[in-house]
Design goal:
Distance between the termini of chain B: 76 Å
CATH class of chain A: Mainly Alpha
Strand content of chain A: under 5%
Oligomer: heterodimer
Structural class of chain A: mainly alpha
Order of helices and strands of chain B: HHHHH
Number of domains of chain A: 1
Largest interface: A-B, 29 and 37 residues
Helix content of chain A: over 70%
Order of helices and strands of chain A: HHHH
Radius of gyration of chain A: 20 Å
CATH topology of chain A: 3 helical TM bundles of succinate and fumarate reductases
CATH superfamily of chain A: Fumarate reductase/succinate dehydrogenase, transmembrane subunit
Mean pLDDT of chain B: 91
CATH class of chain B: Mainly Alpha
Low-confidence stretches of chain A: none
Largest sheet of chain B: none
Number of helices of chain B: 5
Number of domains of chain B: 1
Number of strands of chain A: 0
């Protein structure tokens, strides 16, 4: 079979409208991969703190810059999203919440909770 | 018949390595452990006042915080390297690149695990 025949192709990722649950699923992976880099940053921050007051000061300066704040905001949201959706996954692992309506409902809660937690954290901190 | 090897011998080393159930279990175990740890971590960090050097050091020198931070570093890197492994296994079809990517992430993770623990202990036991 060649690509230029007239038979319909199966939905391809670029043209396929992902259902809500599939978007949540890929976001779980994306935030997970992002958090790997967040962990690298965390060790870097610890290293700066271990280096003494001066090196902490320069790290603090970076984290307070607009770019540093943007990174921290991304880290906070990724962490809360991966955390909340991870709990959703753990419920599936014990065999609960497999109905599509439940998966959708839990997904909406996860999105709302991770946004709320992110905002709350940034208001306190 | 050109090849006398049995179907089993041919399939060996090409299929799953046999530790997927263990991988699955450790991924969930670390996930479950991280649930209370993430809550602790976020609350602790958010409730710190302006994170100046003395504030950070005295927080890390409190023994419970020292222990928890060491656990956070170790368990989250373990969870992360296993998660990255799954992503690579799903999306990289060429075996040599896939295995190189998996091993690279694992070695980086273990190095940073050790580095993180060292930094925490240095701060915790340091004379500040």
């Amino acid at each position: 079979m060649s690509w230029d025949d007239n038979r319909p192709m199966s939905p391809h990722l670029q043209v396929y409208n992902l259902p809500f649950t599939a978007m949540l699923s890929i976001l779980h992976r994306a935030t997970g991969a992002g958090l790997f880099f967040g962990l690298i940053l965390m060790v870097w921050v610890l290293g700066a703190a271990a280096g003494g007051a001066e090196s902490w000061q320069s790290m603090h300066g970076f984290l307070s810059s607009w770019f540093g704040q943007l990174v921290l905001l991304g880290f906070t949201f990724s962490l809360y999203y991966h955390f909340c959706n991870g709990i959703r996954h753990l419920f599936w692992d014990i065999g609960k919440g497999f109905e599509l309506s439940d998966a959708d409902k839990a997904g909406k809660i996860v999105i709302a909770a991770s946004i709320a937690l992110t905002l709350l954290t940034w208001m306190i901190a | 018949m050109k090849n006398l090897r049995s179907p089993l011998a041919k399939a060996k080393n090409w299929g799953p390595s046999g530790d997927a159930a263990h991988h699955f279990w450790i991924q969930r175990l670390t996930a479950l452990a991280l649930v209370p740890m993430v809550i602790w971590f976020c609350l602790s960090i958010a409730l710190l006042p302006e994170v100046t050097y003395p504030v950070l050091v005295s927080w890390l020198q409190f023994p419970f915080n020292t222990i928890m931070m060491i656990l956070v570093v170790i368990i989250s890197f373990k969870h992360a390297d296993m998660g990255m492994q799954v992503i690579f296994e799903d999306y990289i079809s060429k075996q040599s690149i896939r295995i190189t990517a998996i091993l690279t992430v694992k070695f980086i993770s273990y190095f940073l695990m050790a580095a993180g623990v060292f930094f925490i202990i240095k701060i915790a036991l340091g004379d500040h």
